[in-house]
Amino acid sequence: MTPAEMEARIVRYGDLKPCRTAFIDAHTPGSDRKENFTIIGGGVSESPDQHVHIAEPHGFNIGAAGQPPHCRNSLHSHRTAEVFFVLSGRWRFFWGRWGDAGEVVLEKGDIINIPTGIFRGFENVGTDYGMIMAILGGDDAGGGVIWAPQVIEEAGAHGLVLGENGRLYDTKKGESLPDGVGPMPVLTEAELDRYPEPAPMEVVGFGVRRYLDMVALAKDRPVKVIGERGIIRDKPGFEVDLVTRSSASDGMHSHDRASVLMPVTGHWRLFWEGGEVSLAPGDTATVPGGLRHGAVPAMSGEAALYHVVGTDDPAGATWRG
Prior knowledge:
36% strand, 5 helices, Jelly Rolls
């Protein structure tokens, strides 16, 4: 593989193309300034305006959300795993039918594996524009987003209607549901009763790990963050490792499927039999399966990256299910 061919498999932070109309709350005050990014895979956007950077299936999706201070993503649920790590800013994650069952605030590098089958949302509570990177289980990311009923109702008051086909229609632009397409059904009370409201320590204890704690664990070897033997013991269809300066190796290895490198801090040198490239925080690189490669810090100072690779585990519901 030539450096140019590898460069085509890297999405640079500065080249990310946002979608500001990705979801049903795109016009709702408090959520109308967020930007959504689909980096690898088809993602879960409800808008045809969403740009897909790398469409190649990996068994999981990589995306991102960028939001100014006090901007939030409304309450929703997924049928497969949803994992976030903070790239920049300070973020509050909250959950429950009304978003009041619990919350946790995460800082740069912190990671959260949100249990499937619960309503969740997130908000930038920092003072500057912030970004979180997302890993969603499955190639189809579980078939889309399930919204809390009040989110759909409030969106309608601001002109957005979600069709049962999973597409948004903006009535303020004169759009309407096509013939034969009804509105997305709102969950019934009986269906809502099946969504658990876990206590704060259930979610935090299960799925939250702090960056500095993981760095301390990764002194001699990369720490497996999510996996059957991870410090978050879950099998969502992919594994996540944290590699630090002290745990990086200058040897090469390969995987039987594509793997993804996502720097959090520091600049990294990705090398393989054929060349090398540099990666910076916010860049996302996908390495083809079977290609021998390695990654080491390119400069002095703090350096850490998340490494993601798919597994043969089903990408369906995890934890509670």
